[in-house]
Write a structure and sequence with these properties.
Layout lengths: L4 E5 L9 E7 L5 E8 L5 H5 L7 H5 L9 H14 L5 H27 L14 H11 L8 H16 L20 H21 L1 H7 L29 H33 L13 E3 L2 E3 L10 E3 L2 E3 L18 E4 L32 E2 L4 E3 L11 E4 L8 H10 L3 H14 L9 H31 L19 E10 L2 E10 L2 E8 L1 H5 L11 H6 L11 H9 L4 H5 L1
Helix pairs in contact: 4-7, 4-9, 4-12, 5-6, 5-7, 7-9, 9-12, 11-12, 12-15
The protein binds NI-FE active center A-form (NFC).
NI-FE active center A-form (NFC) binds next to helix 3, helix 13 and helix 16.
């Protein structure tokens, strides 16, 4: 038709949750129209109504098992804000270590297990000379101990067995003959080997949250602090976190720093060298970026100056001005639903989350092709997604590591600026290269490195406080609901691995009267709004050339670079 041929990718895989993407391509296979849809909804905000706000964290944490913990942390912060509860310093350090470990863990999993295969061809790795891979390893990361030709030959043999048995396992269903793959075989073998190393490392890094939170995914949290007690030399509760466990965490933090420095960052730069000509996918990153900030240095101060992760908004691509972000201002953040499967009393009007409404209304548009259960093409002029459309002062925004890094760079944050300059110099690309699919992927790697370093900072802070005799991890002064005002509201925020996350709640007569989550992938995966403005995924796909429409690896590259989480986005 006039809009060109429609390509449908459903489900988009190697992400969390149910995502569908549709694009129209012109006669040159260039994307001229893009549609992102969340295809499943569970209704956590509805389920929370009438419940005890101290329990909310346990429900909202189940929004997602990937960014596990971050919804719970956001929730306890929202309740503490509403009830004016202050947490002890040790709880702040432990919460930060858990949140930073999630950042580092999530970014590692994203790079190797969710995104790498958009750039790395495991079948091509079979053609590699293990000696060449060993030489490459020693060139890009001389201190990584696993670099012998025999080590890479072993991986190659394991891979060969997979292929010969016809069971490619996790490497199945790729477009392995597509000319979009540009790595030489020795680099493919290196990346596949580290895919397996990173898989192994996952089981270590998650122990940090297991020790402090009792289990992972879905560790335990507490309004007023953290639920783990500390026991040093027999002083403190039985079964509490003791020196042996603290030493274990400390050693995992050191190994995380080493793995990121010796494996993740060198691989990222080596792979990027081969793809730096593929500059698609910038979308909203060149114009509209949003970060709430996170990682309070001192406990209980959520002002921008106390947050180690940057807060601010950039609009119209103007890096000379970072706008202040206020989550309590009803003019700043609003959610719209004219293209979402929800009802509002007046759908031309957006709602601030404190007054948000979640009322499902699944209705397909008149131009939808197919029936309600077998949709061949969505109608983007009507409702087409379970994701709402959040806007900041009317703008669709991109959130996530790239947003945080560009906001930090625009603010002159020293650590972030140094990291970005190092990458730009190593790859010999201009600043504008940041605003791309690859820029998003690079920012995630840099942030993992930053997060690992900050885990060490908070671990040292925690140990110093413990050595000074402070074992307190919780404040239960306001545990009794009789001490609460009859009507209050609060907001909590974090920077989840995928971006800015906020929870807004109202408490009436000690129960939750309203609870609204505006989630990173809700921002990025947003459908159109009342004005027809497209969301970040949609914008990033525009004008990309798809070499083979039946093998849309270019679409996957750009969508995966956001690390989408549809379970989160629709909740
Ligand atoms: Ni699920 Fe999420 C949380 C999202 O808020 N989007 O990073 C976080 O999931 O991964």
């Amino acid at each position: 038709d006039d809009a060109g041929r429609r390509v449908v990718v459903d489900p988009v895989t190697r992400i969390e949750g149910h995502m569908r993407c549709e694009v129209n391509i012109d006669e040159d296979n260039i994307i001229r129209n893009a549609i992102s849809s969340g295809t499943m909804w569970r209704g956590l905000e509805v389920i929370l109504k009438g419940r005890d706000p101290r329990d909310a964290w346990a429900f909202v944490q189940r929004i997602c098992g990937v960014c596990t913990g971050t919804h719970a942390l956001t929730s306890v912060r929202a309740v503490e804000d509403a009830l004016n509860i202050k947490i002890p310093e040790n709880a702040n350090s432990i919460r930060n270590i858990m949140q930073l470990s999630l950042q580092a863990h999530d970014h590692l999993v994203h790079f190797y297990h969710l995104h790498a295969l958009d750039w790395v061809n495991p079948v091509n790795a079979l053609k590699a000379d293990p000696n060449a891979t060993s030489a490459l390893q020693q060139q890009i990361s001389p201190s990584h101990p696993k670099s012998s030709p025999g080590y890479f030959r072993d991986t190659q043999n394991r891979l060969k067995k997979f292929v010969e048995s016809g069971q490619l396992g996790p490497f199945k269903n790729g477009y392995w003959t597509n000319p979009a793959y540009l790595l030489p075989p020795e680099a493919d073998l290196l990346a596949v080997t580290h895919y397996l190393e990173a898989l192994d490392f996952q089981k270590d890094i998650m122990k940090i949250r297991t020790v402090f939170g009792g289990k992972d995914p879905h560790p335990n949290w507490l309004v007023g602090g953290v639920p783990c007690a500390i026991n040093i030399d027999g002083v403190g509760a039985v079964g509490a976190v003791n020196m042996e466990r603290l030493n274990l965490i400390s050693s995992i933090i050191d190994r995380t720093i080493t793995f990121i420095d010796q494996v993740y960052i060198p691989d990222l730069l080596a792979i990027a060298q081969f793809y730096k000509g593929w500059m698609y996918g910038g979308g909203l990153s060149g114009t509209s970026l949003l970060a709430y900030g996170d990682i309070p240095d001192k406990a209980n101060d959520y002002s921008a100056s106390n947050l180690l992760m940057p807060r601010g908004a950039i609009i119209n691509g103007d890096l000379s001005k970072v706008h202040e972000v206020d989550l309590t201002d009803p003019e700043q953040i609003k959610e719209f639903v004219p293209h979402s499967w929800y009802s509002y009393p007046d759908e031309a009007v957006g709602l601030h989350p404190w007054d948000g409404i979640t009322e499902p209304n699944y209705k397909i548009g008149p131009n939808t092709k197919g029936d309600r259960t077998h949709i061949q093409e969505l109608d983007e002029a009507a409702k087409y997604s379970w994701i709402k459309a959040p806007r900041w002062r009317g703008h669709a925004m991109e959130v996530g590591p790239l947003a945080r890094y560009v906001v930090g760079y625009a603010q002159g944050n020293k650590e972030i600026t140094e990291q970005i300059n190092f990458v730009l110099k190593t790859l010999d690309v201009p600043v504008s290269a940041l605003f791309s699919t690859l820029g998003r992927t690079a920012a995630r790697g840099l942030e993992a490195q930053w997060a690992a370093g900050k885990m060490r900072y908070f671990m040292d802070k925690l140990m110093a406080n413990i050595k000074a005799g402070d074992l307190t991890t919780a404040n239960v002064e306001r545990w009794d609901p009789d001490t609460w005002p009859s009507s209050v509201k609060g907001v909590g925020f974090t920077e989840a691995p995928r971006g800015a996350l906020g929870h807004w709640l109202k408490i009436e007569d000690t129960k939750i009267a309203n609870y609204q989550c505006v989630v990173p992938t809700t921002w990025n995966g947003s459908p159109r709004d009342e004005q027809g403005n497209i969301g970040a995924f949609e914008a990033a796909l525009m004008n990309t050339k798809v070499e083979r429409p039946k093998e849309p690896v270019e679409i996957l590259r750009t969508l995966h670079s956001f690390d989408p989480c549809l379970a989160c986005s629709t909740h």
